[in-house]
Amino acid sequence: MGTGVVTAEDTSGRPISPPHSHPDAMLAWCYRGTVWVHLQDARWRLAPGQGVWIPPFTPHTAHHEPGSTGCYTYIPDSHFATPPAAVSQAYLPRAVQEMLLHLGINDMPTDLRVRIQSVLIEMLQLPAPALNDEWTEVPMPTDERVRPLMQAVLADPGDPRTVRELLAAHGLHERTVLRIFQHDTGMSFSRWRTGVRMTLAARLIVDGLPIGSAAARCGYATASAFSASFKERFGLTPREYLLRTQADTAQHLYWR
């Protein structure tokens, strides 16, 4: 059981590697900032204290936003009572994070290490408390016909062009795109695009960008339209979301 630590400076903002897999289960988790984990059919945004289980032989890669630190803990199946069989979220209290890092750089008697690892694995497999509604997984279509369109939206969520203008720019028919997105993600392209925008919006607001500026960055002409979309996604207005985040003492404990 070992943990690798990667900072944004190590990769200069690029993905840490081409998509690859491991023979052991891996827990990708965020220690500082924001870490994005990319899978074939999904994209996970991790804040400090959040992680995602990646089963053995599951292709993946990741990238880190500036100033961020991501950690990757590898755990053989023999260490689990029930190994992870599907991609799923994990919650890492600060004490668990520090102990995982401690195990990675310090020697200790084997029996002590085994006992500590057993307790940590048990804690890591506990349900994430009250964090489920904060996760921002963005399902990704797998059909190659829409890949350039998808990549364009991810690169610039605030692109002001309408859906029809975007589709025309990529030479795509509206019905074809609707059918692909419904099949691969369970939603329309328009709703998927809004989800990508709201993922960005939540991060910008928490990072201190004024709500009006966040609205413009995410492609909204008015703050009221932005607020309505944000509330539909998160159940809170942007201001309510920010106040709740600021009042969450656990959130502050995750940062240094």
Protein described:
The relative contact order is 0.11. The model is unreliable at 130-135 and 248-256 (pLDDT under 50). Helix 2 runs antiparallel to helix 3. The chain has a five-stranded antiparallel β-sheet. A four-stranded antiparallel β-sheet has the order 6-3-4-9. The chain is an alpha+beta fold and 256 residues long. The longest helix is centred in the C-terminal third of the chain and has 18 residues, at 189-206. It folds into two domains: 2-134, Jelly Rolls, CATH 2.60.120.280; 141-247, Arc Repressor Mutant, subunit A, CATH 1.10.10. The protein is built from eleven helices and nine strands. It is globular, with a radius of gyration of 20 Å. It has helices spanning 8-11, 94-105, 110-124, 147-155, 163-169, 174-185, 189-206, 211-217, 223-234, 238-247, 249-253; strands at residues 2-7, 25-32, 35-39, 42-46, 50-54, 60-64, 69-75, 88-91, 138-139.
How would the blueprint of this fold be written?
Layout: E1 2-7, H1 8-11, E2 25-32, E3 35-39, E4 42-46, E5 50-54, E6 60-64, E7 69-75, E8 88-91, H2 94-105, H3 110-124, E9 138-139, H4 147-155, H5 163-169, H6 174-185, H7 189-206, H8 211-217, H9 223-234, H10 238-247, H11 249-253
Antiparallel strand pairs: 1-7, 2-5, 2-7, 3-4, 3-6, 4-9, 5-8
